[in-house]
User: Fold Arginase from Gluconobacter roseus NBRC 3990.
Amino acid sequence: MKTCQILGVPTQSGTSERGCIMGPTAFRIAGLPEILQELGWQVEDVGDAVPAAMPDVSHSNPAVRNLDAIIAWTKSVGERAYEMAKACDFPIFLGGDHSMSAGTVSGIARHTQDLGQPQFVLWLDAHTDLHTLHTTTSGNLHGTPVAYFTGQSGFEGFPPPAAPVDPRNMCMMGIRSVDQAEKRHVAEIGITVFDMRAIDEQGIVGPLTSFLDRVRAANGRLHVSLDVDFLDPDIAPAVGTTVNGGATFREAHLIMEMLHDSGLVTSLDLAELNPFLDVRAKTALLMTDLAASLFGRRVLERKTRTY
Ligand SMILES: NC(=[NH2+])NCCC[C@H](N)C(=O)O
Ligand SMILES: [Mn+2]
Ligand SMILES: [Mn+2]
Assistant:
């Protein structure tokens, strides 16, 4: 049986809105571990990560908030993610704000490097999260993990990622809120971005298939990072950074179903769930259902199509 380990990463220091600390609990109450078991996985919930000791740090950009806590989380989550990748077939990380992914992706990529394979990342988000400590104006470090784990400079005090992800191995979908500094950066480093306009024009199947083909051709391992604000706020209100015009229910499920059928996904973040902002748990339940689709739940049994 395929094995999966689930780790809670209750970070909220990367945001200015409190509540993401409750995210892992909400996913557990929504029944995520049991649902994956029913789908035929051997599931082990390994509890919640705790941050490493906080370093004594300051930064020249006065906007930066909670740098000590984010460095401490990045260190410990990076180690936990690396151990999980060695110990099971499929690590899942329950956030927690998106600063969690500085740790999760860098730990996962370190293991992928040990295997001698390239790491690919699918980033499903309204935002590119590509700031550095120097370019962020909000100071909220959940806006920075992609720059960190792709090895960009500007992360003084952080442990350097052992295996920086090649930005050309990254695909972003759902993007619709990008700051000036991020726009320059994204073009420069060569990430493939399907913004919301591209999705409107081309749909999901073409863009996602072309990326999955690249992952397969390179014999890569694929990490998926799903931010709640990828989804439209009408269906997913439980996030501190809602942006109108997000992915629909069907678009999101189609992505998850295609990812499952591809057989390429080897790890997952469920990020930014803020249960304090939810409406009768509908966002927690939707995110859980999306994970179920990624793990093989489908409406009707049918022959697997390979994308
Ligand atoms: N993970 C997220 N929700 N990130 C939102 C970041 C928003 C904005 N770009 C900022 O840096 O403040
Ligand atoms: Mn994000
Ligand atoms: Mn976002």
